[in-house]
Structure formats: C-alpha cells, structure tokens
Amino acid sequence: MKNNLLIKTTVLLLVLLSAKSQAQSYQLFWSDEFNGTALDENYWNYELGNGNWGWGTGQVDYDTKRDTNVHVRGGYLTIQTLKESNYWNTDIYNNWKQYSHTSGRLNTAKKLSFKHGKVEMRAKVPKGVGEGVTLWMLPTFDKFGGWPRSGEIDVLEICGAQTTQSQGTMHFGESGNDQHSYAIYKPTPTDLTDDFHVYGIEWTATQLKWYIDGNVFKTADISVPYGTQYYFPFNEEFYIILSAGVGAAMCGKDDGAAMMAKYIVDYVRVYKTADEIVTIPAKIQAEAFTSEKGTQKEVCTDADGGYDMGQIGTGDFLSYNLVAQDAGLYKATFRVAAGTGYSGAIKISSGGVQLGTANVPTTGGWQSWQDVVLQFTLKKGVQNITLDFTGQFNLNYVNYELISTEVQPIAVELPKVFPNPFSSEIHIASQEEDATVRVFDLSGRIVLYESLKKGNSVLNTSQFSAGVYLVQIETESAVSTVKLVKE
Ligand SMILES: [Ca+2]
Ligand SMILES: [Ca+2]
Description:
Layout: H1 2-24, E1 26-32, E2 45-46, H2 54-58, E3 61-63, E4 70-73, E5 76-80, E6 82-83, E7 101-103, E8 105-107, E9 113-114, E10 117-124, E11 131-139, E12 152-159, E13 166-174, E14 177-185, E15 197-203, E16 207-212, E17 215-221, E18 238-246, E19 262-273, E20 278-280, E21 282-285, E22 291-293, E23 296-299, E24 307-312, E25 317-324, E26 328-337, E27 344-350, E28 353-360, E29 370-378, E30 381-391, E31 393-404, E32 416-418, E33 425-441, E34 446-460, E35 467-475, E36 479-486
Parallel strand pairs: 3-7, 20-25
Antiparallel strand pairs: 1-19, 2-8, 4-5, 5-19, 6-7, 8-18, 9-18, 10-15, 10-19, 11-12, 11-18, 12-13, 13-14, 15-16, 16-17, 21-31, 22-25, 23-24, 24-31, 25-30, 26-29, 26-31, 27-28, 27-30, 32-33, 33-34, 33-35, 35-36
C-alpha cells in the first residue's frame, strides 16, 4: 500500500512537473491589446458586406468599417451590431442602408497567420435574440482544397439568446460532406455576458484543446485519422476571424427588439513555444518553412550543408512566420542554385505587402550556389513572409540582416539583367529613375561603371575577356548583384 502510494505520488508529481514545464515554455508571439485609437490594419482586415448567403451562415447584417460598428477606444475593441431604422433606401453608394442590421467582421488573413500555439481572447459577449459572436480560424493557403477540406477551428460561438454556453468546433472532411466535432461549455450558473472571460485554444501538432477561463472543455487528438478516412488538415497556417452578426442559422432571427449589442474585446494574444518563435535578423533555412506548395526538401552540398528546397517551379511558394526584432531596412541574401538553362525569380512579401523581387540567374548547376540580394523595410514584430516563385531553381537559405533602423521606402522591383551567358552586350531593365551599375571581374576589379536611367539600357561588353563577372546595380532602394558569364 505504502509503496503503491509512493509510486502514485511520484507519477502525479511527474505529471504536474511536465504540465508545468509545458505551460512555462509558451511565450507571447503577438498580441493586440487595443490600446490605440484605431484598428491596427498592419494586422487586421475589415471584411465588408454580407458575403455569399450571409457569410455562409445566413447572417442578415451588412458588415461595415463605420465607427459605430467597429471601434478601438479605451483599451477595447468594440464590435457593435445595430438594427438600422432607415434601411432599404435607394442610395446604392451606401450599400449598408439596404440591410436591416449592420455589424462588423475582422480577420488577420495574410497579416497574422501562424501554425500551432495558444490563442487567447479576453472579451465580454453580448446578449440579444438572434445575435451571434465568434472567434474562429481559417487556413491561409487552403492546401487541401476549399472548405471544409483545409479545415476550420471555431474557438467560440455564442448566441445572444443562449449566453450561458459557448461552443468549440473543428470542421474538416470533403466538399459537400462537412465533418465536424464540437463540445459545448456551460459555466452554469454563470451567464457569459455578465463579465469578461478568457476564451482560448491550445494547438499543437497532435492536439487541439478548447478552454474558457482555464477550464478545458474539449480535447481533440488531431494526429490520427478521424474515423477510417479523414486526415486532419490542421498542421498548416491559420488566421483569426472575429465577427458579430444577426440571424445566422445557428442563432436564429432577431426578436424585433432594438439591438445595441456590443462585443467588447480587451485583447487577443497568440503564444507560441519558445522554439517555435523565430526572430530575425538571422539566417533562415529554406527548409524551416511553415507552409509550402510544390517544393521538396533535398540534401544540400553548399558550404553550410544541411538541406535545400528543390523542385521549385512557377506558382510554388514557401512561407515563414518570423518576428522582426526591430523595424528598419533589412538585407535579404537568397542562396540559390539553378542548372544550366534554368533561372527564375523570388517575389517576397510580408503581411501581404510585396517587398521586392529577386532575380535568380543560372548558376550552372543545381548545387552551384550563389547569393542574390534584396533590400526592403520591415515593421517590428510578426512577419508573415511568403516567397512566391517563378522559373526553376533551388533555395538553400535566406539570410536576413538589419542594415539600418531608419525607416526607408519600400523597394520596387529589382532591375533585370540579361542575357546570361552574354557576349558583346548586357541588357538591364530598371524600374527606378536613377541607378548605377558596376561590373566586377572575379579579382574584384571594376571593369565597367555607368549610371542608368529608368527603362532599358545596353552596356557594351565587347572588350571583356571570356569569364565570370559580377554585375552590381545600386538604386535608391536596393543593391542587387548577379553573376554573369561572358562566352
Ligand atoms: Ca485591452
Ligand atoms: Ca538549407
């Protein structure tokens, strides 16, 4: 008995210790405390209108960005549903006036996507027949196809007529054959509208866990197939949606009472485990992506060894969820290789904003590595970096260096340099007004120096001897270097 108790105690202690160390390993990845005076559109998008059949749920409200429907004040985000008295007039330029209700709907698509972590929102939800408020998540890239194939995670769904409960759900399955699994939390006798509560989800590679005020009410193992046929699509990037509305099939019609319901959000926070938060400046290996399309990891024989991402083709992409420690001007060095006759380009964007395009030259071999450089500014904090590819080449890593914490204008498209190999001429197509070109031979000697105007320029290279040259083009916003071969 005594030994048994000791074992039980030890096991319990180990469980507690491991739970504690897990809890401790989370760090804040991103948060909006709503302390400003306007919605932070670096991370939030307004979704306007009524969507297709009331955003797919039968909601009757028109979502606007009017201050009366969505505002940030006094440390809170408020989304307010309003019953409109003067709707259905003929003012086609104010579309919301054709709807009986207005409300708000926000998402973080392309701006704050992430894979795994904890999402927590402290909010006070509204009462009101027909009202419905949600915090939910959709996949950024629909990797497995349209809804519900690529999944949906509903952190909270609360109907204004039934505010003693919240529902947590996950959707997956086949088109036209939605599979879902849900649980309802009833903090009886508490009415959720009485006070603020913390609504959260913990999301790992193997598990989804829903909780309110720390009370877990649903746990789903997403590491095994659901039933005998459905694989869970949740190991990809998702983004957050916050919405309030009226008349969704789930919450019913409004009862005619004047609606002044307020969905008041104190904060939304995203935590990740320390090892899943990747900060820049740093060298980011191509294979450390969070989502990808069409590429394949392969052994790399470049100086740093490891792996590269190969099989890159037009339309493919790699995405990374990084955190910039400072705002400022960054230099990105893309380590690329392209076999003879192959080349391409990398369009880099962050938060949906295009930062620039780096041209990838032929390097003469799929493991013959070269640097291609691009400069651009980044804001401080979470970066949803996407590398969109054209052409065919391999990528080993991207080295992000902070050049200056002074904010610079965002780079425009880099000049194009061709052909490669060249003989008596090099052509340069530049989108910027003033640029200088320096051509170096392999000993580092400048063999040509010219200023360029916007448009197409031709450099006479007939006097160059055969061999390898570096063509460096400096514009106001960027310095790019490509390696060319004279035949
Ligand atoms: Ca707040
Ligand atoms: Ca690599």
